[in-house]
Amino acid sequence: MNTTFSTFFRNGFIALVFLLFPSFLTDILIVKSGISISMGRLGIFAILGLLASFSLLNAKLSDLQKRILLLYFISIIYLCVIWAFSTPGYFEGNGPRMIIKHLIMGGMLMIVMNDSRMDIIGLSKFLTYVAFILAALSIIQYFGYSYGFISLSMQSLPMYEGQRLLGMGGFIDPSRTDYMYGIPYRNIGFFSEPTNFAQFLQIPLFLALLRYMRERKVRNLFVVLVIAGAFCLTFSVANFFGLLVVLIIMQYYMRDKSKRVTGLGVVAGFAGLIAACYALYVLYDTTNKYDYNSEMVIGKNTFVTVLNRFARTDIVFNALGNNPFGNIGFAREYATNPGLIGNVAITGGFPLILMMGLLFGKYYATIYGALKSSRNKLAYIGCFSYLVPFLWDGQFYELYFLFTVAFFSALVKHEMAGGEIM
């Protein structure tokens, strides 16, 4: 019983950590419990530090994980140095302090998740269940609110400016409904935006699909469909493109036809889900007599958005020209997200580009090597499906990303030791 409770507590606490950013669910739970966000986050940081200290002697790290921890350490030291020479005002808010704190937490997650007592397979199942619950709640709220079965209240949330509609399945930002062309909203869950929610669902989706391929039970299929449905309702072009990329990878590497999910089957399944969501959208649009064209929800001015995103390169090159060693307080100067590479470049300049390049290169090369030789290719394919939209709109200090680095590096180590996945 003690072992079961300890495992559940550890997995649940890790979930609270990775749901801190870019998810706001942990912050909401902190606020609802009557604790201030600053104290709640400090408490989570302190508990994670205690878990890491208790796990340090039992942590068995691979060479890859040791290199990652070293690069985290060097990056933190470097960012602290440039922070010391930056504007004093940057000592507040979601600037340098958050970036450095998250990198420290990423290192602590690596240690905790490599404790010899850690059940990494149990954690993978726990991650899938968490994603399933959040996906199911978001779908229920999505259609329940759209058709008037669920009413939501406006609430002031400390992590947001202004008020948001908040329910059991996540947020709705009333100020952002106009550009949805008559549709209430894209599925956002408890995340900062739909793209981030879709990114979060990518990895559990493939883990759930792997489990269904192993055990073809209705229950496992239901989990896959629910997560996939919530994913489709985000209407995230970047994530759909990431899925398209991995379909090609799946066809190339999964040559055992008895175990292969054919590209045609996957495309048909997701196309069916998207078509069903779109049909319900049109029905809602027609029923409520909106003046806007419901087809625009698919486009979302994507072409204009793509051009704007590529225009971010000008911001990146200008920032590097002005601050070749980085500007760790850049978030206070640029309203737009410069993308993952731009985020690294602007934050830490050329030195951080080198450090993160070494980290990403070694990490993804190892995952790619595991993908080629693994019996559990679907798990690693999910890692690359997540990577594509993360390159487009990610930040290197996102706690969920740092969790995935610790998770997949531990998964590779576990499989190399002869362990099974799922």
Short overview:
The chain has 422 residues and is an all-alpha fold. The chain has helices at 2-18, 25-32, 37-55, 63-84, 96-112, 120-146, 194-214, 218-233, 237-253, 263-287, 296-299, 302-310, 312-322, 339-373, 377-393, 399-416; strands at residues 153-156, 163-167, 170-172. The chain is built from 16 helices and three strands.
Q: Which bin fits the share of residues in helices?
A: 55-70%
Low-confidence stretches: 89-93, 177-184, 289-304
Structural class: mainly alpha
- DSSP strand (E) fraction? under 5%
Main beta sheet strand tally, sense and closure = 3 strands, antiparallel
- Record field, number of beta strands: 3
Mean pLDDT: 80
- N-C termini distance: 22 Å
Strand order of the largest sheet: 1-2-3
* Backbone shape: globular
